[in-house]
Design a protein that fits this description.
Hypothetical Protein Tm841, Chain: A,domain 3; 6-stranded mixed sheet; 3-stranded parallel sheet
């Protein structure tokens, strides 16, 4: 990661530490290349989880480094999540990094786990919110003193004005909730939303530095629900059919290799249940395979 404020505290004793690439966009190119090359040599593969709210210079530098290193051992992953959701997803990958997952499967797991994250915020204004559809009526109400809005950014955009009947569609499975408070006073998330979503636990974290720009205002309380249990995360990932990338030969799940971006060939029908049956019986073992989890913001 390039921002330490998105390196959430470990969820459990097995959660791997994150690596912070400090000042990645402003370091001399040669120094940045040296640092990234050292990570690859130390860990074998590097997974960079990039926020779409990151400055363009950061994203451009990451792609430049990957291109110059000519390496298929660097995965750049940029899911469409708000900053707090990005931090939660990165921590989940850090949890899974202690298990017996190959680098390709671990990197691919992010695209699976993102479907189990509900991420949103309470905002004091939606006048500058451009990542969620805002109609003219809602935009006009945002200029009224005291107006507050509840917004769900993922998995399906939703925006409502706070009031007695305000509600957001929540997860249909047990989750924990993480809350990060900015310059807004409201207890709606902890007092109303969390109970209505039947969250099993609630924790607070500092508001990520990128959140005000992502949401268009510093008057924000960001929230995110997630699956905290490593055994559940592991079962989800290992239950999905795996393939072999025909270009770089790495194990992957899903329709595209996250390291070389090639699409894996189709798996014969008689092999379709092979991985989920075999892998779900392995259980969880410590630290098999070498990889580093890096947050790019």
């Amino acid at each position: 990661m390039t921002s330490a404020d998105l390196a959430l505290p470990p969820q459990d004793e097995r959660t791997l530490p994150a690596v912070v690439l400090r000042d990645i966009a402003t370091l001399p190119l040669e120094q940045a290349l040296t640092e990234l090359q050292a990570l690859i040599e130390q860990h074998g593969h590097v997974i960079v989880v990039c926020s779409r709210a990151a400055p363009v210079a950061v994203l451009r530098r990451l792609h430049t480094l990957r291109s110059l290193l000519e390496s298929d051992r660097i995965a750049l992953f940029s899911p469409d999540l708000p900053p707090l959701g990005i931090a939660v997803l990165a921590r989940q990958l850090r949890q899974l990094g202690s298990c017996d997952l190959s680098p390709g499967v671990l990197a691919s797991a992010g695209r699976l786990l993102v479907h189990y994250i509900h991420s949103g915020a309470v905002l004091g204004s939606v006048a500058r919110l451009d990542r969620i559809p805002v109609n003219l009526k809602q935009h006009a109400k945002s200029w009224m003193p005291g107006s507050q809005f509840a917004v769900l950014a993922h998995p399906q955009p939703q925006l409502v004005r706070l009031g007695p009947e305000a509600a957001l569609d929540g997860p249909e499975f047990g989750t924990w909730m993480l809350v990060a408070k900015g310059q807004l006073q409201s207890d709606w998330v902890t007092g109303t939303l969390a109970p209505s979503w039947k969250v099993q636990g609630l924790r607070e974290a500092p508001l990520p530095a990128e959140s005000p720009s992502w949401w268009g205002t510093g008057k924000v309380i960001e929230f995110c629900t997630y699956l905290p249990d490593l055994s559940v995360l592991y079962q989800l990932v290992t239950s999905v059919r795996r393939g072999i990338c025909h270009w770089c030969g790495i194990d992957v799940i899903g329709d595209r290799c996250v390291f070389c971006s090639a699409t894996p060939p189709s798996v014969p029908a008689h092999d379709s249940s092979h991985d989920s049956t075999r892998d779900s019986s392995r259980g969880i073992s410590r630290g098999a395979g070498s990889r580093a989890l890096v947050r790019g913001t």
